[in-house]
């Protein structure tokens, strides 16, 4: 089943994708390095399936954003996984600015090797340029604002004057494009679509909240039962089904309507809001492939 069968209204129409791709391709011509922004809780599901093809061999660094909400042990494994594939990766938290210095350092190094190559081929030395790419809601604007700090270029917004591209200086020889590249999310994969919905990457109005809360709770029963017990003060074993669990959570949180019936919609909203705001603790829903293999090769190195 494809994601759009579960999430019918979130489809990017082919025309949207073509337009997004065209804008990115134009901007890519201006940059030497790409920062691919992923959600650290779902690095697989928040990746655009065509990114490699679109950036066509341009050096890239992966930034695992919202790492404050992700399981640190799993984020570490993702960083190791990317590195094992020869891709630099760093965990960041764009709202607090964690990891951003390291991100700039890695980007600068990647850019330097690119510009040095150009100079050795006879080009004039110039600052390297970088842009941020990612699906909606992954934190692109937050990261740009964080990186910009006091360096944010003031735009002279004069009517009738074509606005030049705005660049933010990140280091002596590194500039960041002020406009991020917006990529479409994975639609061909239902599991990825569901995880995007859990995290709020897809607008709640567009999804079946009952369905996604059910699948989310099933996942939590399997992966993080203790977090659920702790948050909702459940001392007994968790019920086996998400339906029973939701009812129990509703009761615990006093979501009752007349006659002691649980207001399930309210309980669904509570569960999703708790997850998205980190009240269920740090949770990761995608794990990297071949973790053992990656770990073994890391140990050998
Ligand atoms: P964009 O659509 O990719 O530009 O995403 P935004 O920068 O608008 O961020 C989307 C939401 O995620 C906002 O509510 C941000 O406050 C939040 N956000 C962004 N980065 C982080 C982060 O590192 N940690 C947390 N907890 N929230 C973040």
Question: In a few lines, what is going on in this structure?
Answer:
The chain is an alpha/beta fold and 301 residues long.
Describe this structure in words.
GTP binds at residues 65-68, 137-142, 181. One of its GO terms (molecular function) is GTP binding. It is found in: Cytoplasm. This protein has 301 residues and is an alpha/beta fold. It has 2 domains: 3-187, Rossmann fold (3-Layer(aba) Sandwich), CATH 3.40.50.300; 208-276, Orthogonal Bundle (Conserved Hypothetical Protein Ylqf, Chain: A, domain 2). It is built from 12 helices and 9 strands. Strands 1, 2, 3, 4, 5, 6 and 7 form a 7-stranded mixed sheet that branches. Helix 4 links the parallel strand 2 (60-65) and strand 3. It starts with a helix and ends with a helix. 36% of the residues are buried. The mean pLDDT is 88. Guanosine-5'-diphosphate binds at residues 65-66, 68-69, 93-95, 134, 136-142.
Bound molecules: guanosine-5'-diphosphate
Question: How many domains?
Answer: 2
- Largest sheet, strands/sense/barrel: 7 strands, mixed
Estimate what percentage of residues fall within beta strands: 5-15%
The geometry reads as elongated
End-to-end C-alpha gap: 41 Å
Mean of all residue-level pLDDT scores: 88
Tally the beta strands: 9
What secondary-structure arrangement, pairings included, does this model have?
Blueprint: H1 3-6, H2 14-28, E1 33-39, H3 51-55, E2 60-65, H4 72-84, E3 88-91, H5 100-120, E4 128-134, H6 140-148, E5 167-171, E6 174-177, E7 181-182, H7 190-199, H8 209-223, H9 225-231, H10 242-252, E8 256-257, E9 261-262, H11 264-276, H12 291-300
Parallel strand pairs: 1-2, 1-4, 2-3, 4-6, 4-7
Antiparallel strand pairs: 5-6, 8-9
Helix pairs in contact: 4-12, 7-8, 8-9, 8-10, 8-11, 10-11
This protein binds guanosine-5'-diphosphate.
């Amino acid at each position: 089943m494809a994601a759009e069968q579960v999430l019918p209204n979130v489809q990017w129409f082919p025309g949207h994708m073509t337009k997004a791709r065209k804008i990115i391709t134009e901007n890519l011509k201006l940059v030497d390095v790409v920062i691919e922004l992923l959600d650290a809780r779902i690095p697989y599901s928040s990746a655009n399936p065509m990114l490699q093809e679109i950036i066509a061999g341009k050096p890239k660094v992966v930034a695992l954003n919202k790492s404050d909400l992700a399981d640190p042990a799993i984020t570490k494994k993702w960083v190791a996984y990317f590195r094992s594939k020869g891709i630099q990766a760093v965990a960041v938290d764009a709202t607090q600015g964690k990891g951003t210095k390291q991100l700039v350092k890695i980007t600068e190094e990647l850019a330097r090797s690119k510009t040095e190559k150009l100079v050795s081929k006879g080009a004039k030395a110039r600052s390297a340029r970088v842009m941020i790419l990612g699906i909606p809601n992954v934190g692109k604007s937050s990261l740009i604002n964080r990186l910009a700090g006091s360096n944010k270029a003031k735009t002279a917004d004069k009517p009738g004057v074509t606005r030049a591209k705005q660049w933010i200086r990140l280091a002596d020889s590194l500039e960041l494009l002020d406009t991020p590249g917006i990529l479409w999310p994975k639609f061909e994969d239902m599991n990825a679509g569901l995880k995007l919905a859990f995290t709020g990457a897809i607008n709640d109005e567009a999804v079946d909240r009952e369905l996604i809360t059910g699948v989310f709770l099933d996942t939590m029963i399997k992966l993080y039962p203790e977090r659920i017990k702790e948050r909702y003060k459940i001392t007994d074993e968790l019920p086996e089904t998400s339906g029973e669990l939701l009812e129990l959570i509703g009761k615990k949180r006093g979501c009752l309507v007349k006659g002691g019936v649980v207001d399930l919609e309210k309980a669904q909203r509570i569960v999703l809001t708790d997850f998205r705001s980190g009240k269920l603790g740090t949770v990761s829903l995608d794990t990297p492939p071949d973790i053992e293999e990656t770990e073994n090769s890391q140990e050998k190195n």
